[in-house]
Specification:
With about 325 residues, the chain is α+β, with helices and mostly antiparallel strands. It has 8 helices and 20 strands. The strands form 3 sheets. Strands 3-1-2-4-9-8-7-6-5 form a 9-stranded mixed β-sheet, with helices on one face. The longest helix is centred in the middle third of the chain and has 19 residues, at about 115-130.
Length: about 325
């Protein structure tokens, strides 16, 4: 049976996907339409992804299990790691061997596992491909100031308000790229960022705080959330397509404030600890080679970009004006070290 093939180009990080059924190729094209390309135009050294639909997943390799639990998308998962490879299992329906050093991924999917693959497993696969070309996926919202053209990253752990804050800013003064999947591109000068397009994970509370995004369908999951395509909100807020943009600031979300908004500079060590806690995988035996490099990149970016702690109040309509200080005002110059 002939192989089905798809080529993707994530701003210089090329991925060649092959599959034994066309369903998975069509799904990848729908998941990442902005990045579909041809073999002749594909950038970078191609990361190879082979997808095999099968009734039985392979056994995990002889790696130590470094994590087991519920992933941010709600699926149960397990991760086994060596220093230069990882094996991911999602809901016992998808398994993926990520050979980081070799630039390849072997993926095994059971019939009917499209959601487990495209919502969950496909992201670490893309992350592994990006890292080869020194691009690094981070758990953060990404917005671009409409006046400055520079980006800010909104960072916090899941459930801390990244989506609510990002949508509030995109209502006026900023354009949204993503609420949780940003890509850092380090360099000799100022770092750049872009974003993987994903559905917004809107919580019931977000819909109550920002009623202008509705009305929404009454289809909430067990966590009180529902996925909404970014394109569905283009008539209500500013949205920008993925494109590398200069990073102007990093904003860490703190606890909500009952006394109005508060925006204060953060020290470099405090910001690095916060970003590493949410974006660098830890294990008992120490960090893997990929995790060590991710930490080094975050340390370099933090050293070059001002960082702030935001404690948002209840009046989210006034938040964009305050956040403009991050890219234009006195606060940014005070934090530059």
């Amino acid at each position: 049976m002939p192989e089905h093939v798809l080529h993707l180009d994530f701003f210089g990080s090329g991925i060649q996907v092959t599959a034994n059924t066309g369903t998975w190729i069509d799904g990848m094209a729908r998941a990442f339409p902005e990045f579909v390309t041809t073999a002749s135009r594909q950038g970078g050294n191609s990361f190879r992804v082979r997808i095999r639909e099968t009734d039985r997943l392979p056994d995990a390799p002889d790696f130590p299990m470094t994590w087991e639990g519920i992933m941010s998308d709600g699926f149960a998962g397990r991760i086994y790691e060596s220093d230069d490879a990882a094996f991911l299992i999602v809901e016992d329906k998808v398994a993926a061997l990520l050979a980081h050093a070799e630039g390849r991924a072997e993926v095994y999917t059971k019939p009917g596992s499209e959601r487990e693959f495209f919502v969950s497993a496909s992201i670490p696969i893309v992350d592994s491909a990006l890292a080869i070309e020194n691009q690094h996926l981070v758990h953060a919202g990404c917005l671009v100031g409409e006046r400055s053209g520079k980006a800010i990253l909104i960072c916090a752990h899941s459930g801390a308000g990244k989506t609510t804050t990002s949508i509030a800013l995109a209502r006026r003064g900023f354009a949204l790229m993503t609420d949780d999947a940003s890509v850092i591109v380090p360099g000799n000068g100022q770092p750049r960022v872009w974003a993987l397009p994903r559905d917004l994970k809107v919580h019931r509370k977000t819909a109550e705080l920002l009623p202008w995004i509705g009305p929404l369908a009454d289809v909430w999951d067990a966590n009180g959330e529902q996925g909404i395509p970014v394109a569905a909100l283009r008539d209500r807020m500013a949205v920008i397509d993925p494109e590398p943009v200069e990073l102007g600031a990093i904003v860490l979300l703190g606890t909500r404030s009952a006394a109005g908004h508060s925006l204060s500079p953060m020290s470099k060590p405090e910001m690095l600890v916060a970003l590493a806690h949410d974006n660098v995988a830890q294990r008992t035996a120490g960090m893997t080679a990929k995790a060590r490099h991710q930490f080094d990149v975050l340390a370099d970016v933090v050293s070059r970009v001002p960082g702030f702690m935001l404690n948002a109040g209840e009046e989210l309509d006034t938040l964009p004006e305050l956040m403009q200080q991050v890219l234009h005002g006195r606060a940014a110059s005070e934090c530059a070290e």
